[in-house]
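Researcher: Go.
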Amino acid sequence: MNFAAAASAERQASRLAAILAHFAREGFARCEPRLLQPAHVFLDRSGEDFRGRLYLTSDGSGAEFCLRPEYTIPVCLEYLASAEAGQPAAYAYGGSVFRAPEHGATGDGEFLQAGLESFGREDREAADAEILVAALDAAAAAGATALKIRMGDAGLVAAFLERLDMPPIWRRRLAAGHARGQRIADIFASPRRNGGSEQTGVLAALTKVDPADARRLVEDLLSIAGITAVGGRSAAEIAERFLDQATLADGAAVSDETRALAEAFFAIEGAPDSAAAAMCRLAADARLDLSAALDAFDARVRAIAARGLAVEDMRFSASFARHLDYYTGFVFEARHNGGGEPVIGGGRYDRLFKTLGAASDIPAVGAAIWIDRLTPSAGEA
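Model: Structure:
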C-alpha cells in the first residue's frame, strides 16, 4: 500500500470511529454480523441478476455463502435470533461490505459502511425522525455537513395505487416500476410480449377461465413438471406471473383519466409542506381517501422539525424511490449539494422481517452511511 492509499485508509477509519462513537452516545448498541452470510437471503430478494455483485463461496454440502454485501439483512437476522426479537431495539454497525464492481466499472469491491437500525417501535413517525437526525448528526461528526435531503414515501404511494381504478396487474406494474425508479411514461408503455406461439396460446387459454382455476392449473402443471421454484420464485408466484401476462396479452388497459391522475401524482415535488398540500388537493379532486397516509406524512414532518431540522430546505418527491422493493414508508437520501452518489440512504421496511422468518411484520427503519463519500468530490464541492 502506497503512502496516499495508507493515508486515505487512516482517514476513513477515523471517520468510521467518529460515527460509531456518536451512535454509542445516542444509545444504539453495536451489532457486527459475521462477514460470511448465506447467499440465498440476498438472491431471494434481489434476484439472480445480483449474483454477479456477490463474492461467493460454498461449503462441503454445496450451500452457498457470500461476503457481507450490506448490513441491514444481516442485522435483522441477528435481531430475530436474539432474546430481543419482537421488542424495541436499536443497533449501530460499522465495517466492510463487499460488492463486486458493476460491469465495466473499476474498484476493489470493498467499502466501509456505517449505519443504524431501529426495530419494534410503534411510534413510526417519531422513529423515522430519530433515524434521519441521528444519521445526519453522525455524518456531521465525521465532517460531512450541509447535506441536501431528498425524501419519498412508499406507504403513501401504496395507498394511492390501492385506490386507483385499474386492473391489479397494472397496479403491481406501477408499484414495481416506482420501486425501480422507472419513469411513469415507461411504466405505462405497452409491455413487450415474450415467448413464441406456444406461450401465446397458453396465455390466451388462461384468460378464458376463472382466475382461481387458472392459478391452480398453472401450479398443477409446474408440479407435474417437478418445478417448485425458479429464480427465487415459488410455484404460486410463477403462476401469478403467468396470470399477469395473460391479462396484459388480453388487452387490459388503464383509462386515460386514471393514467392522467397517476402522472399528476408522481409529478408532485417540492418542500414537504407544499407537496403535502398538492397531494391533498389531488386526492380531494379525485375523491381518493388518502387521509391516513397523509396524516402520517404530516406527523413525520412535524417530528423531524421538532428535532431541529429545517424541513423547508428538504425536498419531497412522490416519484422518489430507493430501488429496493422492501421499503414500506419513509425513504430518504442525503447528498453533497444535492448531487453525486448518496452519502446517506435509508427508510422504513416493516415487511422485511416476515420474509426472513418472523411470524408477523415488525416495525423497522434504518439508514446507512458510505464512509468513502463523506468528503465531496471535486464536482460536488
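Model: Residues 64 and 225 are 25 Å apart (CA to CA).
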